[in-house]
Design brief:
Layout (H helix, E strand, L loop, with lengths): L14 H8 L10 H23 L5 H19 L14 H19 L1 H7 L5 H21 L3 H17 L5 H12 L9 H21 L3 H13 L5 H14 L5 H19 L3 H14 L10 H9 L3 H7 L1 H22 L12 H5 L6 H12 L4 H16 L9 H35 L1 H13 L3 H15 L5 H11 L1 H6 L4 H13 L9 H10 L3 H11 L1 H12 L10 H23 L8 H15 L3 H20 L8
Length: 645
């Protein structure tokens, strides 16, 4: 989300319109003049409120979470209109004001009556049930406006199930009382782990990201990537991969990453000779991979630490090797595509000079400081992020072009407040999904069903779980995506004997790739809009490029050594080498090129050998090496042959 919009001659479409079409977070009301100043101050106040509460306040948890969601309701209706399209300047309709008052009031009622409600138990008066229903519906509407319908459809179907056959209480009023108590007035629904982690950890990092964006670090990532790999064969595509990996360290939106960096890299890829669909797919696959790149991992790292019960720094450490392998797979694919089509890199004259870039290396200091403080556990995660925010302001003073002035501090705080709406709304609805599944016992039904289908075969359970994750993750933001997967899919794998950390990483990966896989491939479609390519072809190509995301999770699920679980250094090195060779072989087969165009049997050998190399085990590794070796040998022996695939 940190790449600036560039004036590229070949840029085919207004980037703002692309963002509004594929990223609901960009479809906001238009405020100008005094109203804009007021709204900016309200959003900035929310960020300051969040920083104060998470760093200094010691409120009762119910009070803290309910007040946080009350603020989300208030600013949610101020920022997001009821529908997409052109917005009237400085206008908010009466019904939005009514929804804003009702939604905010419902959560404030809980805030100011939290102690009485806790002592009250599960018997509620009719007016309290109505207040709870109003709160749930208001949250759903904010989520619809800022996130979209997919997650609401899932939540709605589950609520209908609970009201019809999911609960034992025979009366409708009895069911409503139980549902409202469980989802609104307890810490098992809206105010459960996702919103708790969001209000406690994620908000500080969103604010940190907003400040970091204003230092010009996005341009630095693009330029340093150009300097490193831009001159090689297929340079612009490799720039997209490297820049997106760097950007993914600090951002949390596949679509925003695709549009931000794609506005620069996609036109350059097309100019170099890549087809529009491939250019868009490469950017989308790399940008989606940003969600699995530590330390932020789309903010899901904090949720995973809470669910699994290990420290955040451990989660970030375990995520490194899988993320590197994922990006290595994409890098190999774009390299082979460039070699196959004889594509050159960017000319030396057009590349940024290295010396001026080295002088801006200080822009990375806040990130390095954040990682250092978190890994050493000297401060809580919140304090470490707060210190990093201060460091970002100090670092900006050395950059005349992007110095963070008091005005820009206000803008950064406002941007942070605006960014929290989508995440908090999605987390709140994810809490409803997880709470309903738990409340009705549906989780056990799903788990038992898949376990019964899989029998004793872990690989079958992994495949069925993968399908569930891709379907449930379509169109859902990273944080809410992972919350749903952790509640519904991770327990399946844990029941089958997969270590908890590996199970959670597995479902997280396959929830994320829903941004690439048809039919709801938002990141791929956004890239296609910029490249003016076919959306469906782009999504299919992006899925092929992101083959690592479909393979790596199976590796660490079947052998958690890649996640540093019960392993030694030699084992980790071995699994990394064999996995990389396997991904290289599969990517070559999908591209149809190794050192020359591949024949059909060479592609089959590479796919079979690559998959065997990825599957852990000495026997499978040896057979895989032999098969890939045969394919490589025939390629090298007949390198000058005119035969083509």
């Amino acid at each position: 989300m940190f790449f600036k919009k560039k004036n590229v001659e070949s840029e085919p479409m207004d980037l703002e319109s692309v963002m509004k079409k594929f990223d609901r977070e960009s479809n906001v009301r238009v405020w100008e003049g005094v109203p804009k100043i007021i709204v900016t101050c309200i959003l900035a106040s929310f960020s300051i409120f969040c920083l104060y509460v998470t760093l200094f306040a010691s409120w009762l948890e119910e009070i803290r979470l309910a007040s946080f969601m009350a603020f989300i309701m208030f600013i949610g209706y101020i920022v997001f209109p009821a529908k997409k399209g052109k917005q009237r300047t400085n206008f908010i309709p009466w019904y939005d004001i009514l929804l804003m008052v009702c939604g905010t009031g419902a959560f404030l009622y809980y805030t100011f009556n939290a102690l009485n409600i806790i002592q009250q138990g599960s018997n509620f008066e009719l007016y309290q049930i109505i207040i709870g229903i109003v709160g749930v519906l208001s949250l759903a509407e904010v989520c619809r406006r800022s996130v979209g319908l997919p997650i609401l459809i899932v939540a709605g179907c589950l609520l209908v199930y609970a009201l019809t056959v999911g609960l034992n209480n025979p009366t409708l009023v009895g069911k409503l009382n139980y549902i409202v108590h469980y989802l609104f007035y307890s810490k098992e629904g809206i105010l459960s782990t996702p919103v708790n982690v969001c209000s406690k950890f994620i908000v500080v990092f969103i604010i940190f990201g907003a400040f970091l964006e204003r230092t010009g670090i996005a341009d630095f990532f693009i330029n340093i990537s150009n300097t490193i790999v831009g001159g090689f064969s297929g340079g612009p595509a490799k720039v997209a991969v490297v820049a997106s990996a760097l950007e993914g360290m600090v951002s949390g939106s596949s679509v925003a990453n695709t549009v931000g960096s794609g506005s620069v890299t996609i036109p350059l890829m097309k100019k170099t000779g890549y087809k529009p669909e491939f250019a868009a797919a490469a950017e989308a696959a790399a940008s989606t991979g940003g969600q699995i790149m530590p330390p932020i991992m789309g903010a899901a790292a904090f949720l995973m630490a809470d669910y699994v019960g290990i420290s955040y720094s451990n989660i970030a450490l375990k995520a490194i090797l899988p993320a590197v392998l994922y990006f290595a797979g994409i890098f190999v694919a774009v390299h082979l595509e460039a070699k196959k089509n004889g594509l050159r890199g960017i000319s030396r004259e057009e590349l940024p000079k290295f010396k001026p870039l080295v002088k801006k290396i200080y822009l990375l200091l806040p990130l390095v400081l954040l990682i250092y403080l978190v890994s050493n556990s000297w401060f809580t995660i919140q304090y470490a992020a707060a210190i990093a925010i201060i460091a970002t302001i100090i670092v900006s003073l050395f950059n005349k072009e992007n110095r963070i002035t008091p005005k820009r501090i206000l803008e950064a705080l406002a941007a942070g407040g605006r960014g929290m709406i989508t995440v908090a709304a999605a987390c709140g609805v994810a809490g409803i999904v997880a709470g309903t599944i738990t409340m009705t016992g549906l989780a056990n039904v799903i788990i038992n069903g898949i376990v019964a289908l899989a029998g004793n075969q872990v690989i079958i359970a992994l495949f069925l779980t993968m399908l569930c994750c891709i379907v449930l993750g379509m169109g859902v933001p990273t944080t809410a995506n992972y919350c749903i997967m952790a509640a519904t899919c991770a327990p399946i794998l844990i029941r089958m004997g997969v270590p908890a950390i590996a199970a959670h990483f597995f479902v997280f990966y396959f929830g994320i790739v829903a941004d690439l896989t048809p039919p709801v491939a938002l990141a791929a479609y956004a890239g296609a809009a910029i490249a003016q390519g076919n959306p469906m072809k782009t999504a299919i190509t992006a899925t092929k490029l992101a083959i690592g995301a479909f393979i790596v999770p199976y590796v660490f699920a079947l052998n958690p050594a890649m996640l540093f679980v019960n392993t030694t250094a030699p084992e980790v090195v071995l699994i990394c080498i064999t996995s990389f060779v396997g991904i290289f072989a599969v990517s070559a087969a999908l591209t149809g090129y190794f050192v020359k165009n591949m024949l059909w049997y060479e592609r089959i050998l590479c796919v079979a050998g690559g998959l065997l190399l990825i599957y852990p085990g000495l026997t499978t590794d040896l057979i895989g090496l032999i098969l890939v070796g045969i394919a490589a040998a025939t390629q090298l022996i007949f390198k000058n042959s005119k035969k083509t695939a």
